[in-house]
Design brief:
The chain is an alpha/beta fold and 251 residues long. The protein has helices at residues 2-8, 10-22, 42-50, 63-69, 111-121, 139-148, 160-169, 189-198, 215-225, and strands at residues 32-36, 55-60, 80-83, 96-102, 122-133, 173-186, 234-246.
Length: 251
């Protein structure tokens, strides 16, 4: 699992590195750090390296991912592995100083519930720092499928302003959000589809096709995607939203 997932997760790694770098500007000495949606544990290991005296908790809904995360454990870089749902965290109130979450939120059905749980488990003055996908993600693939059969094959993601509103509703303070765009390129559309499958991307939208997509529709999508080919490669654009917010300090 780890080999296929991490090989396909180029974007996740690039964005994770950027999100970790942004912690350079945060003046916190956390006792407990939660890596929410830890996947194969790459960020958990980096967080333990950064905060050597902290307890780092790698949490993911998939037990298989957590087993693979064990490969990142070492004598000097140990972190806890916990199976849990981001919308119902199995943690005590006010028990975490930093919640770090890289490209997990877009797969959650209820961002308000996730942010509310982050607010609950954060200590006063604690930080939530996260990334998620924005609505312009995979715009080329979305156009190609629209031309092929009119069905919704690609998830629709929340924009930066909606995420900011959700943070405020959850009771988190001083939200700051910005957007960066990344473009990966592929020799053919099938490579992109295989990568999306390998990282567990799924279409949870209403209006998605039921059952298997027919060969004719798939061929039409591939043909439509060809109109975006440039310099011999097919682009896949990802809009990544970077966000952070703080748990208020009660006066």
């Amino acid at each position: 699992m780890k080999r296929s997932y991490d090989a396909a997760a180029i974007l996740q790694q690039r964005v994770c590195d950027e999100l970790l770098e942004r912690l350079d500007f945060v003046r916190l000495e956390p006792a407990t750090v939660l890596d929410l949606g830890a996947g194969t544990g790459r960020a958990s290991r980096a967080l333990k390296q950064r905060y050597r005296s902290s307890q780092v908790v790698a949490m993911d809904l998939a037990e298989g991912m957590l087993r693979e995360a064990g490969r990142h454990l070492s004598l000097w870089r140990r972190f806890r592995r916990v199976c849990g749902n981001a919308a119902a965290l199995p943690l005590r109130d006010a028990s975490v100083d930093i919640v770090f979450s890289n490209l997990m939120l877009q797969w959650c059905n209820d961002p308000d519930a996730v942010f509310g749980e982050c607010r609950r488990v954060l200590r006063p003055g604690g930080l939530l720092t996260f990334t998620t996908l924005g609505p312009d993600t995979l715009v080329e693939l979305r156009r190609a499928w629209a031309a092929a059969d009119g069905h919704t094959h690609v998830n629709r993601f929340l924009d930066m302003h909606d995420l900011g509103d959700s943070l405020v509703r959850s009771g988190l303070a001083e939200p700051v959000l910005d957007v960066e765009r990344y473009t990966l390129t592929y020799a053919e559309a099938g490579e992109l589809m295989r990568d999306l499958k390998a990282i567990g991307a799924r279409n949870a939208n209403a209006g998605r096709p039921r059952g298997l997509t027919g060969k004719r529709a798939l061929a039409a999508m591939v043909a439509a995607y060809e109109s975006d080919r440039k310099d011999g490669r097919l682009p896949a654009t990802y809009e990544v939203v970077y966000g952070q917010a703080w748990c208020p300090v009660e006066s």
